[in-house]
Amino acid sequence: MTGYQFNRMRVRLFAVIEKDSNNDSLSRLYDGYMLVTIIVSLIPLTSKNWTTTSVIIDWVTSGLFIIDYLMRWATADLLAESRGGKYAKHRTRAFLLYPLTAMAIIDLLSILPTITSVLPVATAAGTLRVLRITRAVRCMRVFKFLRYSDQFNRILRVFRQERKVLYAVLGLAVAYIFVCAITMFSLEPTNFHTFFDAIYWASSTLTTVGYGDVYPVTNYGRVLSMIAALFGIAVVALPSGIITAAFLEDFNRNLTEQTRQSKVHNDQFDQELRALEQEMEELQEEMTGRRS
């Protein structure tokens, strides 16, 4: 196999394993196959005691996930090139940095328990054997759905667009929690034994949850708690409004772009139709001239 043929094969492989966006039937089939595999891999996690069937399902699905991970790693440079990142022209860096990307970490965590189960305890990987007995790591497979979700990608795009405003709101929330915690820790030194208790109380009050396990007992503390709760409603509502407005703006922008593309497609179709009608008229005139 020549280098050109190998690169063509990698390009085709990348088009298949990436989420379908060009009405590629093979890519759609692969997306459906991966979604089914993810769902099947979660079946053993619904039972406390694993049977032989559960172990077989885990091994088979983990094997398929490993193959998918290796294929994505093998085409990491094409992924960087398609996204136009700063490493798009540096293939070696793209390969080296791919395991550090968010989705690659999720993919690795979803297969790590199965991989460590076959490694000897005496090795350094024995410290990772804890992951094999924790179902929480296998639950990371749920996040593999995010790769195939258009809405999740849209939400991520909205967060990137509004990140400066959201960072400002986050800073306001952190400052609020810290100030309230210090104030309450000073007003209720006997009820709040540690500063972490005050931080915990301020966080639950900000989110208007209020579990009730830690609460002020003095009148000053209760007044501060009421003010903090009211202010928390505003802090929580602020990013919600920002995200909703940005999401609607992004949706309208996509809808406008789709409408424009549809209009362009219709205009092209009309031009081709008029050209075809003109050719038919010329052909009819030519046939009429020959008959006469």
Structural features, described:
The structure is a single chain. With 292 residues, this protein is mainly alpha-helical. It has 12 helices and no strands. It has helices at 3-17, 25-41, 52-74, 76-83, 91-97, 102-116, 129-133, 135-138, 150-161, 163-187, 195-206, 219-291. Helix 2 packs antiparallel against helix 3 (52-74), helix 3 (52-74) crosses helix 6 and helix 9 crosses helix 12. The longest helix is centred in the last third of the chain and has 73 residues, at 219-291.
List the total number of helices: 12
Number-wise, the strands total 0
Indicate the mean pLDDT: 79
Radius of gyration: 29 Å
Major sheet size, sense and barrel closure: none
Uncertain residue segments: 121-126
**N-C termini distance:** 62 Å
Q: Tell me the helix content.
A: over 70%
So what's the overall shape?
extended
What structural class results from the helix and strand content? mainly alpha
β-sheet strand percentage = under 5%
In N-to-C order, the SSE pattern is HHHHHHHHHHHH
